[in-house]
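Escalation from tier 1.

The customer reports that the assembly of two entities below gives different structure tokens on two consecutive runs. Tier 1 could not reproduce it. I'm attaching the input and our single run for tier 2 to review.
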Amino acid sequence: SAVISQKPSRDICQRGTSLTIQCQVDSQVTMMFWYRQQPGQSLTLIATANQGSEATYESGFVIDKFPISRPNLTFSTLTVSNMSPEDSSIYLCSVGTGVKEQYFGPGTRLTVT
Amino acid sequence: AQSVTQLGSHVSVSEGALVLLRCNYSSSVPPYLFWYVQYPNQGLQLLLKYTSAATLVKGINGFEAEFKKSETSFHLTKPSAHMSDAAEYFCAVSVGGQAGTALIFGKGTTLSVSS
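Tier 1 run:
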């Protein structure tokens, strides 16, 4: 298994600003993912964070809005840029292990005013 | 492409009654399937997973699910509901049928349990 922590756990931000969310894993993992869960909705994959290369973004998500870093095998950041109220969501990171499952962090609850 | 459909956005049962949450999947390759639970204001917890071994999968908290290829289903059941089971439940399929890859989630089913 993997233990994942995220910082911050929640934040309230003003529109037009940016927030960087950190994801730390207690072991080295190859695959890290970022998801968004809008209020009352399911989870949507934003991107796959690849160590040593650019992140791979899903349709509807762009690097300028959600830049991602993956400097090593235990850490990743997601930045939500130029925020608007529509960005108010829970942002979750997850890791894929070699045993066919994913573990999720506790999430970062973002409110944009 | 993979997709997941959860039938019923809200299921209500009485305490002690059978819980049945429905999930159908679409996958062009043999799927890996998962059920997650999310309690209010908490993260996701893995309930159980199907990874092409036994078709009847037992998970935590008394839940189990049966993989039925002919019906493309992976319904979640629990014989006797408890008040603490009230939560949001998500069915998910692994993208591309590969181990440890991204997941596609269903829209979720809210389970309410009344006394």
